Amino acid sequence: MAVSGKRASRPDTRLESVSREDIVLIGIYMISSHRVIGMEQASVMNPKGNRRRDRTKVTYHLGLSGRDTAGARYALLPGDPARVETIAVTLPFEEPRELAWKREFRTWLGYIHGTPVLITSTGIGGPSTSIAVEELAQLGVDTFIRVGTTGAIQPYIESGDVIVTTGAVRLDGASIHYAPIEYPAVAHHLLVTVLVEAARELGLPYHVGITCSSDTFYPGQERKDSFSGYVPRRFQGITEEWRRLHVLNYEMEAATLLTMCGALGLRGGCVTGVVSVRRGSEHITKAALKKGERNVIRASVRALELLVDKEAAGD
Ligand code: URA
């Protein structure tokens, strides 16, 4: 066995001729050669196994480079570009400023107790969410909290309540591009913990559980107030089915975000504010929207503050 100078001249390589000493030497050789490979990889890969980033490269859709983002690893992800500024000027954000706005992707940078945080809008639905998450991850972000609005389907959930998603029904298309449909869309446990802690601390009415993410607002959420008024057979009765399976709500991005984050080794979470209750009218009033948005922003910002503080303290 040619694993050391001492053994190099031994001619017999039959398995039965391998001694205990050989096995130990082989082990040492394998471990040390593996380390060498690991070190070589470090020159092109960062410790998470992702490709090393070029700080000057501007991402295609977000219009940001690593020089803009102050090394931020945390991002809040509203859907609506208008909500980005509302979040960024909410306490405890310090020095909020806009970095870029291209199409539906608007990004602000702010600091929570000195830690940089990005707020980027994803637009509506999985495809644009996947772009935002991809490009933010390329810039070094590894922790994502969706800050959305939602329609509740359980009878005990009210307008303005906050829903912390633990997992999502993958009624989207984008997540299948990241992992097969058998792969779960689950939130990172730490993000669920801080979101619940924040909602409880703020005295907001909240619910924790499974969300259904649909690629469509109308048929996939079984809305009859659509142009045709017709719900394709596939979706007729689906809301009652999800209700009986203890799904709490409908929205359009969580499944993509959570599947991607799991598959890419990132941390994903989702909190939404209820703006419609799916009993009777499907209409979303201005007052309901305002209340749902206000509550979800408060919950998400406080949750991120809790997380930043915990992680800065090394917890
Ligand atoms: N967002 C959705 O996707 N559905 C609703 O009912 C409300 C907000």
Major sheet size, sense and barrel closure:
5 strands, mixed, barrel
Architecture of the largest domain in CATH? Answer: 3-Layer(aba) Sandwich
Ions and ligands: uracil
Order of helices and strands: HEHEEEHEEHEHEHEH
Q: How much of the sequence is in beta strands? A: 15-25%
Task: Give the helix/strand class.
Answer: alpha/beta
- The percent range for helix content is 25-40%
* Spatial order of the strands forming the largest sheet: 5-8-7-6-9
Low-confidence runs: 1-19, 21-45
- Write down the domain tally: 2
The number of helices is: 7
Q: Return the CATH topology of the largest domain.
A: Rossmann fold
Q: What distance lies between the first and last C-alpha atoms, to the nearest angstrom?
A: 48 Å
Taking Cα atoms only, what radius of gyration do you get, to the nearest Å?
24 Å
Principal-axis shape equals globular
Mean pLDDT: 87
